[in-house]
Amino acid sequence: MIKIEEVITHTKKLSILFIEDYKESRDITTDMLESIFQTVTSCKDGQEALDAYINYHKKYDKFYDIVLSDIEMPLMNGIELTQNIYKIHPSQLVIIISAFDDVKYLLKLINLGIEQFILKPINSQLLLQSFFNASKKIIATNIHKNSSKKIMFTKDIGYNLSTKSINNANENIYLTKFEIIFIELLISSFGKIYSNEDVVSHFLLSGKDIDASNIRKLVSKLRKKIPKNSLESIYGIGYKFIRNNHSPDSSPIIPRTSSSSKKILN
Questions:
Q1: Are 16 and 48 spatial neighbours (Cβ–Cβ below 8 Å)?
Q2: Which domain does 197 fall in, by range?
Q3: Which residues partner with 173 through β-bridges?
Q4: Quick check: 240 and 198 in contact, CB under 8 A?
Q5: Total structural domains in the chain?
Q6: What is the pLDDT of residue 156?
Q7: pLDDT (tens digit, 9 = 90+) per residue, 217-234?
Q8: Is the dihedral of CA 207, 213, 217, 220 positive or negative?
Q9: 233 — phi, psi (to 5°)?
Q10: Closest by CA position to 63, among listed 48, 79, 76, 50
Q11: 5-32: average pLDDT
Q12: 3-class SS of residue 24
């Protein structure tokens, strides 16, 4: 028997779109979902849900982690909703609940590729297990996506291009806008020396002003957030990142507008 506390450890940062046309069931289930998920949106029919799904993506530039839907609903049923969602986001995790176990429904849903089919009345343990399984898939997918977008300074510490933060085994270290601009310039070509003029030009192209004095202050603060000896200042020439010998030798691919290679003294 899976405990709700165990499920929450995986779902507490996730979002879910829930669709149920029967108000009493919708209200009761919504209350339960709000104790498990960070974000819960409840809708009374498929059309309202599809609109909510599209608007959520427009607003947050991401999709709901899980869609939980009934089948028999007005305006647009659960199968039609699922078909429309898969047209927008083919890898969306969808869990269907229904009082009907008709083969025609099951075959359509299996062919669509839903995550789980649950019969009403809902078995709470089965529903929790479905959430647990789905959330583990989501977390594993996110870890894979983030790891593929990480530029490593050492074996364990790197810059995450997706979250714009320094990641190590224990925490995410968040950066200022100026630190992000500076880091992404230097990691665009690891080991290359960038002069003050290069840095100033890059900042201007990013819509920010900075001078030599503030570059030094920026470097001083940044060194407190990144691995020791990974950022080298070459007197009178410029700055470069150095990889630890035990870090993966991967070259980042970051679009960067070229700037002058003329060197100025720091």
A1: no
A2: 150-241
A3: 166
A4: no
A5: 2
A6: 79
A7: 999 999 888 888 888 888
A8: positive
A9: -100, 125
A10: 50
A11: 92
A12: helix
What is the share, in percent, of the chain residues with pLDDT greater than 90? 34
Torsion, Cα 225 165 6 129, to 10 degrees, reads -160
- The position carrying tokens 């199968």 is 79
Contact, 232 vs 207, CB < 8 A? no
End-to-end CA distance of the chain: 64
Quick one: average pLDDT of 77-84?
91
- Whether the per-residue pLDDT at 139 is higher than 90: the answer is no
Tell me the H-state helices in 35-114: 46-60, 78-88, 103-112
- Ramachandran region, residue 238 (left: φ > 0; alpha: ψ -120 to 50; beta: rest): left
Note whether 65 and 143 are same-domain residues: yes
CA angle 26/132/127 to nearest 5° reads 35
Tokens in use for 120? 């009403």
Token pair, residue 225, equals 């957030």
Q: Could you tell me the pLDDT band of residue 81, with boundaries at 50, 70 and 90?
A: very high
As given in the structure block, the two tokens for residue 16 are: 């879910």
Residue 242: φ, ψ to 5°: -125, 130
Q: Which of 74, 118, 76 is nearest to 94 (CA)?
A: 118
Domain-located, residue 118: yes
* 59 found inside a domain: yes
Phi, then psi, of 232 in degrees rounded to 5 = -105, 135
Q: Do residues 99 and 120 touch, judged by C-beta distance below 8 A?
A: yes
Residue 212 falls within a domain, yes or no? yes
Own/partner contacts of 25-29, CB < 8 Å, gap of 24 or more, are: 29/122
